[in-house]
Amino acid sequence: MNGVEYAWSTVGDLLRLSATLTLATLAAVNVFSGYPIENIGQHTLHPKFQFRLQSIYGYDSSLGSWHPVLRSFIGFIAFLLIWAGVISAGVIFNLFEAVNYEADARVWVQHSQYAALAICLMHLYIQRYMVKGVSHPGGPREKKIRRVPHWDEGVRSLPSCFGADATVASGGTKKSFWDNIMDNNSSSSRSRSNSDKKQSRWRCAVAEASHEVTTLKFAGVKGAGMTGEPSGRQMWTLDEGKSCATQVDEALVQKLACGGREYDGFDPSKNPNSCDKIFRAQQIRNKMREGAVPPSLDFIPSTAAEAAKKGFHFYSMLQTEDGHWAGDYGGPHFLMPGIIIAWYVMGKPDELLDAHQRQMMLHYLSVHQQSDGGWGTHIESPSTMFGTVMCYVSMRLLGAPKDSEACTKAQTFILNEGGAVYTSSWSKFWLCLLGCMEWEGHNSVPPEMWLLPNWFPFHPG
Q1: How many Å separate Cα 168 from the centre of its chain?
Q2: Each residue of 107-137: pLDDT tens digit?
Q3: Cβ neighbours of residue 46 under 8 Å, at least 6 residues apart?
Q4: How would residue 24 be classed by pLDDT, with cut points 50, 70 and 90?
Q5: Buried (b) or exposed (e) across 300-332, using 16+ Cβ within 10 A?
Q6: DSSP secondary-structure letter at 441?
Q7: Which range has the worst mean pLDDT, 78-82, 176-180, 202-206, 214-218?
Q8: Spatial separation of the C-alpha atoms in residues 370 and 377, rounded to whole Å
Q9: In this structure, how many other beta carbons lie within 10 angstroms of the beta carbon of residue 3?
Q10: N or C, which terminus of the chain has less Cβ within 10 Å?
Q11: Can you tell me the distance from the alpha carbon of 103 to that of 255, in angstroms, rounded to the nearest whole number?
Q12: pLDDT at 313 over 60
């Protein structure tokens, strides 16, 4: 066997060894975990909504990393592959002749393992000390946005289905959403005086309650089932035609929900954050109905310990039934449009977003629009093309007329800033999905990657 044949033979041995170790490692961890190999990547459903993603034992799909012991095996397999690559490079580029190793290829093969080891160590050094992590914030923007966030002054009134007690009496004159937005009517407060009537009440359903709401909505959809951990999940739903529960001191509830501060209504020019006021009021109201005594607004702590106890008391009134503290994740303006666009391309199913939820989404988008007609990437940022394109498209899909004041102002902002082609890649993806932009205009992830098993390091999920 001459030198070249010996080198190729060694390459073949290394590749076979790498493949054997890979299969043995994956098989061993699945045997130890008790997961049937055929169930890898499959979902299992449980009547109580328990969920497990069957995947490779020791692989954390959320972190995208393996257990340290498994990483050592994977690292060794990578070393073998690099070693095979170094030997192959020597044969292809005739490095034997270049360094006079033609007489004894075994010396080249032996030395090539040190080159492979050096490559592995260099990779580790570069990854550890020279390459910034994906979450590294980077430096300041070279070209800062000159705009500053600005909203027209004035309190934004809620549609009549969202009053101080989040209720509205059924019946009465119907008004369109746009009528409700434009007019500061107080029909909801008048209707609350009729306590003998059936009412519709917005409720933040949490944990198992949220799963029950979703399961009920999709009851008529063939093949639909719940997956995911119920704890920590929350969603708003409208309970229609429900009788009023035990009444509490609503003025106290509202003052506690505002943290003891005066609240004259939502005015984004003063504070664009909602501060979870409606959710807080719901939690405090429910706890008071159960007999809980809220912290006294008249008591002013005189020591740090008293202040801590009062704060602990207050936040215990906000804790949900499954133990976590829920909150509005309404800061980013690019998240909600995703579900709106998905709802639209799936045929606008009411099971996913019903008419009441769509109405509230329209209201949320309209009250956060800034004076220049745009929306920020998040609710406190100056208007950006990213936030504006996403929010404008969402309003149109939800039924906002193109010639409405809000949509006209948004169109003007987009055109004055150069058009939607200047939006971000995330926004372009949604535009392509809607058919508003050609896929050639977006560097998309090949969809075939979703066919890879969940444990694969390059899986998009």
Answers
A1: 31
A2: 777 788 888 999 999 988 887 888 776 667 7
A3: none
A4: confident
A5: eeeeeeeeeeeeeebeebbebebeeebebebee
A6: G
A7: 176-180
A8: 12
A9: 20
A10: N
A11: 90
A12: yes
Residues 43/227, Cβ–Cβ less than 8 Å? yes
- Whether this prediction's pTM lies above 0.85 is answered by no
The pLDDT value recorded for residue 100 is: 52
- Domain boundaries in the chain? 3-37+60-130, 167-316, 336-451
Residues 344-388: pLDDT tens digits?
999 999 999 999 999 999 999 999 999 999 999 999 999 999 999
Say if residue 385 is exposed, middle or buried (CB neighbours under 10 Å; 0-12, 13-18, 19+).
Answer: buried
CA distance 188 to 202: 13
Written as six digits, the tokens of 305 are 């310990």
242 close to 165: Cβ distance less than 8 angstroms: no
Higher pLDDT, 461 or 107: 107
Residues paired with 90 in a beta bridge: none
Query: Which position has the token pair 């009465």?
Result: 172
- Could you tell me how far CA 418 lies from the centroid of its own chain? 29
Residues 6+ apart with CB under 8 A from 121: none
Bridge-partner residues for 66, per DSSP? 59
Task: Write out the two tokens for 250.
Answer: 């609503």
For residues 191 and 159, the answer to whether their CB atoms sit within 8 Å is no
Q: Tokens standing for 375?
A: 């929306």
**Calpha distance 118→125 (Å, rounded):** 10
Beta-strand runs (E) in 221-292: 234-242
Nearest to 427 by CA among 354, 361, 305, 335: 335
Query: Residue length, the chain?
Result: 461
Q: Was domain 336-451 assigned CATH 1.10.3720.10?
A: no
The answer to whether 44 touches 52, Cβ cutoff 8 Å, is: yes
Residue with tokens 């999940």: 233
Handedness of CA 340, 342, 348, 351 (dihedral sign): negative
Cα separation, 253 vs 159, whole angstroms = 21
| Residues 252, 294 contacting (CB under 8 angstroms) | yes
The token pair that represents 241 in the structure block: 């035609």
Answer yes or no: is pLDDT of 1 > 70: no
Identify which of 393, 389, 391, 443 has the alpha carbon closest to the alpha carbon of residue 421. 389
CA dist 257 and 261 (Å) reads 9
